[in-house]
Amino acid sequence: MHQTTRTMPAHKHIALVAHDSCKPDLLRWVQENKEKLQGHFLYATGTTGAMLSKQTGLAIKSMISGPMGGDQQLGALISEKQIDVLVFFWDPLNAVPHDPDVKALLRIASVWNIPVAVNRASANFLFESSLMSKDVDIEIPDYDRYLAERV
């Protein structure tokens, strides 16, 4: 597929997701990075978003719970170019019933070439990058061209 460019704004749209066993780690990371996160637009799956908002006071737009379709809602926002960064603290040692949704979310983040942090270390590296506070051009699939060639 051909590629095109889109510009991520300096104020990023960031999705925050965590499996149940990783929610305490994500909460601690968000608390430690609250000042950095305040300058961005935050989204989360339902349970994670409610917990983070209550514990940190951050404004977070919550989807429904991940197993009920929240992962898919975030995936749709990614494909609509409305999410710039995914922070997903997932548990690689425990299978979850909605594992296909989790894989689909990670796959769509890769398709649309957005940065993904999957644990504290990768989130720290990502948020220490100077690119987090700048407009950034990224390559994405040129879906309009794809359609034009098929129709």
Automatic annotation (TrEMBL):
PROSITE patterns (UniProt xref): METHYLGLYOXAL_SYNTH, MGS
Keyword Lyase attached: yes
Ligand binding (substrate): 19, 23, 45-48, 65-66, 98
A Gene Ontology biological process term: methylglyoxal biosynthetic process
Keywords, ordered alphabetically: Lyase
Entries under Pfam families matching the protein: MGS (PF02142)
EC number: 4.2.3.3
UniProt catalytic activity: dihydroxyacetone phosphate = methylglyoxal + phosphate
InterPro entries given in the database record: Methylgl_synth, Methylglyoxal_synth_AS, MGS-like_dom, MGS-like_dom_sf
Domain of life: Bacteria
Function recorded in the entry: Catalyzes the formation of methylglyoxal from dihydroxyacetone phosphate.
Protein name (database record): Methylglyoxal synthase
